[in-house]
Specification:
single chain, 218 residues, alpha/beta, 7-stranded mixed β-sheet, 8 helices, 39% helix
């Protein structure tokens, strides 16, 4: 599949994603060559709202299919939005003032924080190893699903970095395919390797162990 598929109309991308994700090869994680079942679905930042709608429509369509390798039932998609999960974590953690959450503390005192102070606070409370990944692991453990959709990547930058999430998910979500919807570009070249370019402008970091879903065969 042409890497230029990400530049095609949303309807064409939807058809490709549906064909790939509903396929036996994808669902049973065949042909990975010992790599992780992680896939990047990158898109233009200006398409964020349309892609959010496409993601939900895709999950609904997958659930309605009859897939032989799943016993003729549909594909169950678990959708985790990192921004929504971050808000839940902030609301569940007690702040420095008795009786209020970190979320309330941040909302009430946002204007008093420096940018660096607010960033440090959020990075500590939402640390991938200590808090975020365990929260995702808890959701996975109590959910029935065949494919994990991760979104909200742009909304949680810079206090959560997408490559940190993928790196730390390796021991938690490797049992089922994971698709990360990424507002930017997943680039690869022989000279520079692979990198996640958030919003098409910010170099998030090198990440080598994910497949570009637009280049994945159904």
């Amino acid at each position: 599949m042409s890497p230029k598929l990400r530049e095609q109309p949303l309807a064409e991308r939807f058809d490709h994603l549906l064909a790939v994700i509903s396929g036996e090869r994808f669902l049973q994680m065949k042909g990975l060559n010992n790599d992780l079942p992680f896939y990047i679905c990158d898109f233009l930042p200006s398409e964020a709202i349309q892609m959010q709608r496409l993601q939900h429509q895709l999950a609904n369509k997958l659930a309605s299919l009859s897939i032989p390798c799943l016993g003729d039932r549909g594909v169950l998609v678990l959708e985790i939005n990192l921004y929504d999960l971050s808000v839940e974590l902030l609301k569940s953690r007690e702040g420095s003032e008795e009786g209020i959450s970190v979320w309330e503390e941040v909302i009430n005192n946002e204007s008093d924080y420096s940018k660096e102070g607010l960033l440090e606070l959020l990075q500590n409370v939402l640390d991938p190893i200590e808090h975020l990944i365990p929260a995702i692991a808890g959701i996975l453990a109590k959910s029935e699903f065949d494919v994990l959709f991760l979104s909200g990547i742009g909304e949680v930058f810079p206090y959560i970095r997408s490559h940190n999430v993928l790196n730390n998910l390796q021991s938690t979500a490797k049992g089922k395919p994971t698709v990360m919807f990424f507002p930017g570009e997943y680039k690869y070249s022989l000279e520079q390797g692979a990198s996640l370019e958030l919003f098409g402008r910010l170099h998030d970091d090198k990440y080598y162990r994910a497949f570009n879903i637009y280049e994945t065969q159904a």
